[in-house]
Amino acid sequence: MNLIFLMMSSGLTLNTPIEEIFHIGTGCSSSKLAAKGDYIFQAFHWSGYLHLDSQFPLFRKQKHINNYRLGRLASRMAEYDGKMVTADVTSGNMIFEPVLEDGVFRFDCSENDRIAAYPSLSFIDTKVRDTPIMNKKVPLYIPTFECAHGKQIVNIELPSGTSFYGTGEVSGQLERTGKRVFTWNTDAWGYGFGTTSLYQSHPWVLAVLPTGEAFGVLADTTRRCEIDLRKEFRIKFTAEGPYPVITFGPFASPTAVLISLSHAIGTVFMPPKWSLGYHQCRWGYDTEEKVLKIARGFREKGIPCDVIWMDIDYMDGYRCFTFDQVFSMLVSYFSLWSP
């Protein structure tokens, strides 16, 4: 029996507060300009901080005469903002266009939001989401939206008796009716029945209608998203806007919905045979001897085991892409990769 040894990794994100300068635009498409050092960036608010929206500055601040130009720009932006913004909150029915194939629709809060939305990281071909197809059909269920202070709230009302599934990698029951989930990845090593954020985020809901037909909804955003299924027969997404919502169906069955979804986001690869066997994994395998002892124990007791995972114990000071010297066996394996 051959055993495969796998290692986990860790990551770190730092957020730095910066100085806000302007607020421009309307509704979910509103954006900001911010100053950091000598440069002006496009930026957005998140968790009490103003974050740079790009690593590339829009232009550089300069003293003297350019300060005058910047002042004129601020004045013109304020004038533009005053003409365009009539309320802090906008709401209504989302606009739609057919995409991908029959029965699939993209919804946006406005034409401006459609243009302002980030490229899709869900679709295998990003152009498919942004390219309408020739189809005169209209969707059976049209979401409503509310945009307030940069947040986009989407509601979809479905028939009485609808049950909900999906919502990505979460703990708890397979049926998600009455649940509330946050797509906000965490290292949830100690998760319990009520933990709503695990290692992956998938803002997707599969609704099974009382007729037996099925309906799928994808909020195509990578930002922190609340999926609220607590109100009976209603799907509610809340996230920083703008972002499009893609609906699939209703189709004859959940299988038909998932087939259509796979045409958008792709299919699962065929897993290798060893990955389907038993995997032994835990924190605390901090020496090579411990790992080998566990492996020998499985063999001596005749218990099948295809993979033994090591958590971040194997790292040198918990730094990614490093190996502690106590794992000399691993170091010798991976030295073969060195140039």
From TrEMBL:
Domain Glycoside hydrolase family 31 TIM barrel: 269-326
Domain Glycoside hydrolase family 31 N-terminal residue range list: 150-228
Domain of life: Eukaryota
A GO molecular-function annotation: carbohydrate binding
UniProt entry keywords in alphabetical sequence: Glycosidase, Hydrolase
Signal sequence segment: none
PANTHER family xref list: ALPHA-GLUCOSIDASE, HETEROGLYCAN GLUCOSIDASE 1
Similarity annotation: Belongs to the glycosyl hydrolase 31 family.
Name of the protein in its database record: Glycoside hydrolase family 31 N-terminal domain-containing protein
